[in-house]
Backbone:
C-alpha cells in the first residue's frame, strides 16, 4: 500500500464515520392501532353482534373522559368505546426503560381561579393541596420546577422564551410594548361584563370590538399596531406554531391574542403563566380522570357509521380485538370525537360539524443517556429555538427529583404548518424512519452537536389531525345551529375542536357540558 | 580519520548523550505524573519503569526492519521522540479527568515513548558501525548513554522539577531531541532523502514544542491537578462526581468535583458543630437519619452517644461510602464509623428516599453539597423540607449545613426562611472552620427546647454547651436579611448562591 493510498483511505474512513454518525440509533414509529384506517373503508360487513344501551359515548380523549367522570355512579346502561388502544387522545402517553413521556399535550397552565369545575377536578386529582387567602395552593411536585424555559438564540441558551440577549434596543422596546398590550387585554372586559379573553372561550365577551379581531390575521393586526421587530415576530411565530400549529399570518388575531391574554390564573404559590406538568405530560390528567370513572372504555373499538333516529340511534362498530362488526342501538349518544371524524360518521348531517383545517404534527421522543450541553442556561423543562422546523423539545424527566440522573427523554415537537394541510399530512405519512431521523438530526444538531453519541432510541408519533387551525373568522360558528337538530335525536357533541382551540380546558368543559346535557334529559325523562 | 570525520563522530556521540538524557527524563516524568495523579508512587514508578524498559526492548527489536537511509530514519525518530516525550506530561494532565481509562492512556504513551527511544541507540550504532572498531563503538556509545542517564537522574529532582515544573521540563527535553534532529539534518543534508518534507517537519515540531513550553502555564491551569496544592493520593470518578483525596504530611483533604469537602486538620470543628448541638437538644435519640455525609465523619460523632439505637445513612454515591469504609487512612479518620453495626447505608437519591420514607426520626442530619446548581437546589426547597418535617418525630430535630453566612448571607437566611415557611422552628448558628471560613447551620424542629437535655460526650475537641449561645449570635455583616422562599418552581436559592459566591471568587 502506498502512503498516498493509505492517507486517502484513512481520510475516506473518517468521512464514512462522519456519514454513519448516529446510524446505530434505532428509530421506530409508535404503534398505531389498526382501527384508525378502518374508518376510511367504504364497505363494511354486516354486524354479527347486537347490543343496546341508554347511552353510548364514543371517544376517550379528554372530552370523553371528562364526560364519563361526570356521569360516574350513574345507574343507566352506558357503553363507552375508544378506537385507539391507548386512551387520552392528544394527551396519551407512553413509557420506556428510562421513564414516562408524552405523545402530545404536556402541560396545563395554572387555571383561572373562577373555573370552579376544573379546580374541583384538580383538587380530586391531588394537584391542589389546600386553599390560602381564597386562592388554590398547587401541589409543588406538579408545578413546573425552575429552570422552566430556555431559548437557544445566537448559539447561546438564554433564560426564558423571549429573546433578551443579542437583540437591539428597538426589538427590546417593541417586545416590552407587546407585553403591555397583552396586559391590557388580560384586564379588558366587554360591555357584557365578560372578559375579552378567558377559558373556555364560550365565556369570552361578545363585544364587537373584541370579535373584530377575528376578521384579520394575527400578523396583519400586529403590523396595524406598528409592530415590526424581527426578534418579536420570530418569538410570536414560535408561539403560534406551539399552540395552534400555524403561522401568525394564518392565524386569527383574536386567537393570537387569546394565547397570551387568556392565561391569568392566580394561585397562592405560583404566578399566572406557571404551568402544571408531569413526566407523562397530560397523561397524568388522563389517569386522574379515568380513576374517577366508574365505567372503563372498551379500547380498540371504532365507530364506523351512525344512523340517527330519534332516541334509537344505530351505531355500527368494529372491534379490532375480536375482528367483529357489531351494531349498538342507543337512545343517547355522545360524540367525543373530532369534527372530521363526525363528518365521516354522520355524512347526512355534515353541516352540523365545523369544517376545520387540521395541522399535522410529529412528536419524537428521543431517549438520551445524557444531554450534551452547549453554552448558557442548563437543561430546562421547555427548551426552545426559533426559526427552525421544530419548536424545540421538552425534557420529560424534568419533574423527577433525582438530581444526578443524566438519562432522560426529550420530546421534540414538530408542527407541519404548510398552507395545504392535506398535502403536508400525506407527506408526513410517506416519510420513512430514516427520513424523520434526518429531520430530527438537523434540529438537535443545531443546539446539541454530538447528540448522536448519547442517543439510545427515537420513537416517532405522527398526529395526522393534531389540532384545528383557528384561522380568521373561526369564531363565527354556522354549524352550531345545526347541532340543535342532532340534539333532538339525542346526539350530543363533546370535543375541544368545537371551540377551535385544542386545549385541555376546552375539552374538559365540552365533556362536562355534554354530561350535563345527558343528565338533564335523564332527569326530565 | 580526517577532521570532518572526527566532527561527525563527536556530533553523533553528543547526540547519544542528549538522547540518553532525554530518554531517562521522559521515564521519570511519566513516573512522577502517574504517582502524582494516581498516588502510590512505588507501584506507579515500578510499573512505569517496567513498561518503559520493555517498550525500549520492542524498539530495539524493531530496529532490524530499518534497512537503508538510517540517518534519515534516525532524524525522523528523534522528531517523534521529541514530540511524544515533549507533550506526554501535558497530555496526561489534560486527559486525567477526561478519559474513562486513564491508565490505558498512560501506559500507551509510556510504551510509545519507550519504543521510539529503544530505536535510537541501535540505529545510531549501525550508523557508526563502519566507522569504529566494534569494541570501541560499544564502549563509546554506552559510556555516553550512561553518563546521560546519571545526569538526568540528578538534575531531574534537584533542578528541573523545582525550577521548571513537570510540563516545562518535558517540553524542554522535547526541544532538545528536536535540536539533535536539526543538527544532524543541517550537517548531513546531502544524505537525507525528502529534504523539503523533513525541513517542514522540523519547523513544525520545533514550533509546537516551543509553543507548548511558552503556554505550559495555561495548559496546567486548564488541567485539574493545579487545583490541588497537595499530593493527590486517590482520584476516582463515579457516575455522580469526581473524588480526589490529597495529602500533605498528616493533613488529608477530600475534594468533590474540585470543591473542598473537608480537611482532616479542622473537620472536627465542622462535624462537632453539625452533630452535638442537635444531639444535646434532642429529647429522644433512638433513630437517627443522615442525608449526605458519606464520609462517615458525622456518623463518627453520632456514635459517641450510646443511646442512639440506629443510624440510617443515605448517600447517593456508593463509591464514596465504599472508599470511606475501606481506605486505611480514611478508616482511621472516621474511626470505622461506617462499619459500625448500628449503621445502615443506603446508596440512593435523598429526595426520592425521603419522599417514600414512612418512619420518623428523632434526629435528621443534612450534609448536602452547597446549592450551586438547580439539581442540588431542589434539596433545599419547601417541598423537600415538607417531607423532612413529615419524617421528624414530635420532639425530633434536624440540622442542615447551610453554606457560609459570611460569603453568602442571603443564601444562608433563605434556607432558614424556607424552613420557617413549612412551619418548622429554627435556630441558625455558625462557627469558624479555618479551611472553609465562617460556616453556617440551621437547627430545625417542630419546637426547639431552650436548653440542652443531655450532656456532651467526652472527648470533644471543639464544642461545649457554653459556646452554643455565642454560635447563635450573628454579627452585623452576617445578620438576618429578608429573602424569598426557595421553592421548586422558583429556585431562588440557586440564584442567590451563584450571585454571592461569584462576587467572592
Residues:
Amino acid at each position: 500500500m502506498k502512503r498516498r493510498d493509505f492517507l486517502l483511505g484513512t481520510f475516506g474512513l473518517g468521512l464514512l464515520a462522519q456519514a454513519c454518525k448516529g446510524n446505530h440509533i434505532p428509530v421506530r414509529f409508535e404503534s398505531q392501532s389498526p382501527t384508525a384506517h378502518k374508518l376510511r373503508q367504504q364497505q363494511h360487513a354486516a354486524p354479527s353482534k347486537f347490543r343496546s344501551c341508554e347511552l353510548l359515548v364514543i371517544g376517550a380523549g379528554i372530552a370523553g373522559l371528562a364526560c364519563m367522570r361526570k356521569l360516574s355512579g350513574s345507574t343507566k346502561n352506558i357503553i363507552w368505546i375508544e378506537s385507539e388502544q391507548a386512551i387520552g387522545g392528544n394527551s396519551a402517553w407512553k413509557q420506556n426503560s428510562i421513564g414516562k413521556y408524552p405523545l402530545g399535550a404536556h402541560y396545563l397552565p395554572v387555571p383561572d381561579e373562577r373555573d370552579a369545575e376544573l379546580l374541583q377536578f384538580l383538587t380530586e386529582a391531588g394537584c391542589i393541596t389546600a386553599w390560602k387567602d381564597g386562592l388554590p395552593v398547587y401541589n409543588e411536585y406538579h408545578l413546573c420546577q425552575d429552570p422552566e424555559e430556555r431559548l437557544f438564540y445566537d448559539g447561546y441558551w438564554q433564560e426564558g422564551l423571549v429573546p433578551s440577549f443579542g437583540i437591539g434596543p428597538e426589538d427590546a422596546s417593541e417586545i416590552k410594548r407587546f407585553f403591555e398590550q397583552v396586559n391590557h387585554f388580560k384586564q379588558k372586559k366587554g360591555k357584557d361584563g365578560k372578559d375579552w379573553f378567558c377559558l373556555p372561550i364560550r365565556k369570552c365577551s361578545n363585544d364587537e370590538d373584541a370579535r373584530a379581531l377575528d376578521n384579520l390575521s394575527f400578523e396583519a393586526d400586529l403590523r396595524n399596531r406598528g409592530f415590526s421587530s424581527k426578534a418579536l415576530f420570530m418569538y410570536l411565530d414560535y408561539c403560534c406554531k406551539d399552540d395552534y400549529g400555524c403561522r401568525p399570518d394564518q392565524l386569527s388575531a383574536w386567537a393570537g391574542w387569546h394565547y397570551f391574554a387568556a392565561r391569568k390564573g392566580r394561585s397562592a404559590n405560583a404566578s399566572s403563566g406557571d404551568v402544571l406538568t408531569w413526566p407523562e405530560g397530560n397523561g397524568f390528567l388522563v389517569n386522574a380522570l379515568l380513576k374517577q370513572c366508574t365505567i372503563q372504555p372498551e379500547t380498540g373499538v371504532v365507530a364506523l357509521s351512525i344512523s340517527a333516529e330519534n332516541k334509537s340511534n344505530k351505531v355500527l362498530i368494529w372491534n379490532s380485538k375480536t375482528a367483529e362488526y357489531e351494531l349498538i342501538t342507543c337512545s343517547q349518544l355522545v360524540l367525543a370525537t373530532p369534527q372530521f371524524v363526525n363528518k365521516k360518521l354522520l355524512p347526512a348531517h355534515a353541516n352540523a360539524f365545523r369544517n376545520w383545517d387540521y395541522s399535522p404534527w410529529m412528536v419524537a421522543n428521543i431517549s438520551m443517556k445524557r444531554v450534551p450541553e452547549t453554552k448558557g442556561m442548563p437543561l430546562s423543562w421547555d427548551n426552545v429555538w426559533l426559526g427552525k422546523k421544530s419548536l424545540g423539545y421538552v425534557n420529560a424527566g424534568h419533574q423527577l427529583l433525582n438530581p444526578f440522573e443524566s438519562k432522560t427523554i426529550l420530546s421534540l415537537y414538530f408542527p407541519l404548518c404548510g398552507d395545504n394541510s392535506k398535502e403536508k399530512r400525506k407527506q408526513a405519512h410517506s416519510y420513512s424512519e430514516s427520513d424523520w431521523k434526518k429531520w430530527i438530526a438537523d434540529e438537535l444538531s443545531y443546539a446539541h452537536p454530538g447528540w448522536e453519541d448519547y442517543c439510545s432510541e427515537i420513537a416517532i408519533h405522527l398526529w395526522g389531525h393534531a389540532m384545528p387551525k383557528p384561522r380568521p373568522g373561526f369564531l363565527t360558528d354556522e354549524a352550531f345551529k345545526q347541532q340543535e337538530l342532532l340534539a333532538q335525536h339525542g346526539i350530543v357533541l363533546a370535543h375541544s375542536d368545537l371551540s377551535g382551540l385544542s386545549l385541555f380546558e376546552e375539552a374538559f368543559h365540552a365533556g362536562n357540558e355534554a354530561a350535563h346535557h345527558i343528565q338533564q334529559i335523564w332527569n326530565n325523562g | 580519520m580526517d577532521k570532518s570525520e572526527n566532527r561527525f563522530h563527536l556530533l553523533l556521540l553528543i547526540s547519544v548523550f542528549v538522547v540518553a538524557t532525554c530518554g531517562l527524563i521522559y521515564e521519570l516524568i511519566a513516573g512522577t505524573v502517574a504517582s502524582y495523579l494516581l498516588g502510590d508512587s512505588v507501584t506507579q514508578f515500578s510499573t512505569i519503569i517496567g513498561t518503559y524498559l520493555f517498550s525500549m526492548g520492542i524498539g530495539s527489536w524493531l530496529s532490524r526492519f530499518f534497512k537503508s537511509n538510517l540517518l534519515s530514519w534516525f532524524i525522523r525518530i528523534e522528531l517523534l521522540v521529541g514530540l511524544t516525550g515533549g507533550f506526554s506530561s501535558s497530555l496526561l494532565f489534560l486527559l486525567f479527568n477526561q478519559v474513562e481509562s486513564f491508565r490505558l492512556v498512560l501506559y500507551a504513551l509510556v510504551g510509545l515513548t519507550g519504543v521510539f527511544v529503544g530505536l535510537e541507540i541501535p540505529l545510531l550504532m549501525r550508523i557508526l558501525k563502519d566507522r569504529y572498531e566494534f569494541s570501541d563503538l560499544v564502549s563509546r556509545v554506552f559510556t555516553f548513554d550512561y553518563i546521560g542517564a546519571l545526569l538526568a537522574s540528578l538534575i531531574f529532582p534537584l533542578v528541573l522539577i523545582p525550577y521548571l515544573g513537570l510540563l516545562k521540563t518535558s517540553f524542554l527535553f522535547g526541544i532538545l531531541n528536536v535540536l539533535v534532529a536539526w543538527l544532524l539534518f543541517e550537517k548531513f543534508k546531502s544524505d537525507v532523502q525528502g529534504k523539503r518534507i523533513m525541513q517542514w517537519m522540523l519547523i513544525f515540531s520545533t514550533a509546537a514544542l516551543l509553543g507548548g513550553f511558552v503556554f505550559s502555564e495555561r495548559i496546567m491551569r486548564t488541567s485539574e491537578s493545579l487545583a490541588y496544592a497537595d499530593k493527590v493520593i486517590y482520584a476516582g470518578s463515579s457516575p455522580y462526581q469526581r473524588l480526589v483525596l490529597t495529602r500533605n504530611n498528616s493533613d488529608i483533604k477530600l475534594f468533590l468535583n474540585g470543591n473542598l469537602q473537608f480537611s482532616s486538620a479542622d473537620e472536627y470543628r465542622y462535624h462537632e458543630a453539625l452533630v452535638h448541638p442537635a444531639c444535646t437538644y434532642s429529647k429522644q435519640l433512638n433513630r437517627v437519619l443522615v442525608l449526605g455525609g458519606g464520609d462517615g465523619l458525622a456518623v463518627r460523632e453520632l456514635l459517641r452517644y450510646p443511646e442512639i439505637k440506629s443510624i440510617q445513612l443515605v448517600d447517593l454515591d456508593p463509591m464514596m461510602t465504599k472508599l470511606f469504609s475501606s481506605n486505611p487512612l480514611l478508616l482511621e479518620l472516621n474511626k470505622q464509623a461506617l462499619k459500625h453495626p448500628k449503621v445502615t447505608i443506603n446508596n440512593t437519591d435523598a429526595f426520592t428516599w425521603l419522599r417514600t420514607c414512612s418512619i420518623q426520626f428523632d434526629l435528621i442530619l443534612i450534609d448536602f453539597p452547597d446549592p450551586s446548581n438547580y439539581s442540588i437546589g431542589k434539596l433545599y426547597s419547601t417541598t423537600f423540607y415538607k417531607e423532612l418535617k413529615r419524617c421528624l418525630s414530635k420532639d425530633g430535630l434536624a440540622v442542615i449545613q447551610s453554606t457560609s453566612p459570611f460569603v453568602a448571607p442571603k443564601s444562608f437566611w433563605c434556607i432558614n426562611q424556607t424552613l420557617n415557611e413549612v412551619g418548622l422552628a429554627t435556630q441558625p448558628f455558625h462557627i469558624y472552620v479555618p479551611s472553609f471560613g465562617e460556616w453556617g447551620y440551621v437547627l430545625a424542629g417542630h419546637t426547639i427546647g431552650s436548653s440542652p437535655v443531655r450532656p456532651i460526650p467526652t472527648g470533644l475537641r471543639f464544642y461545649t454547651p457554653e459556646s452554643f449561645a455565642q454560635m447563635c449570635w450573628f454579627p452585623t455583616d452576617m445578620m438576618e436579611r429578608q429573602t424569598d422562599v426557595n421553592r421548586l418552581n422558583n429556585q431562588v436559592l440557586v440564584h442567590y448562591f451563584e450571585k454571592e459566591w461569584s462576587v467572592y471568587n
